């Protein structure tokens, strides 16, 4: 398998982008799956709960080409310009393109050999990109790992290999790892803690959103395992509900509740009619980040502050 050349700028979606005036940290960001069904890309299918039939029929190659213009365009418009720009408020963002696994394989089963083989190619790219970043761009700076969905799975593999050893030199620079949209289990790591308090550092956190009134066991059955979770409104596992204005429809507040039995964030519309885009849909996976943009940025700043204080380093401006 040919190794991807990350000295070539075209293999990065973002390479050092920031909107912060004095960024004290870097963000190594791995975007979610954007190599997807045409029907999902163009919006004719919205329901992520019912894609297995389409997955059985699709014959797309297992891994994206780095030169796939349509996928790269979708990645740039949906991920780099939204999630990447969000994290750029906090630090310098390094976001590699990678030979990601096609969406269809995740709907055929997490234990399928073709998915495992495709993921190995994607993981190889993320590993190469991270090592390139550490060698040529990091220069001893603290960093945050951020993923979503497939991106979080990629970082899970990266952390197992390079961070789980207590003697790892990378761990000293890790502020936190945000791994939403993928079920991360306690047994996935031996020495990296799950962070269930908003100011903890050096560990990881994760969450998955599901609509209240649905059948959360369906989500657990689909991915084959229950992950750890918390409520990104508080960055704790407190089960009390928290309400905020809807990020897309301000007149319809949303309530977020951490559900301990499923480890999911249960979401409901309150005080108004349910937004059309949520009607008939229970898996709110696409909104794992967009629901909590302000909270994520503020929490990153808090963890950076804690990290800096522990080491007597300059504070976040």
Walk me through this protein's architecture.
With 317 residues, the chain is of the alpha/beta class. It has one domain (9-208, 289-311): 3-Layer(aba) Sandwich (Rossmann fold), CATH 3.40.50. Helix content is 31%, strand content 15%. The protein has helices spanning 38-41, 52-57, 69-87, 103-106, 113-138, 150-162, 216-223, 293-311, and strands spanning 12-17, 26-30, 92-96, 143-147, 174-178, 204-205, 209-211, 242-244, 254-259, 264-269. The strands form two sheets. Strands 1-3-2-4-5-6 form a six-stranded mixed beta sheet, sandwiched between helices. A four-stranded mixed beta sheet has the order 7-10-9-8, with no helix packed on it. α6 (150-162) links the parallel β4 and β5. The longest helix has 26 residues, at 113-138. The radius of gyration is 19 Å and the shape is globular. The protein starts with 11 loop residues before the first strand and ends in a 6-residue tail after the last helix. The model has no long low-confidence stretch (mean pLDDT 88).
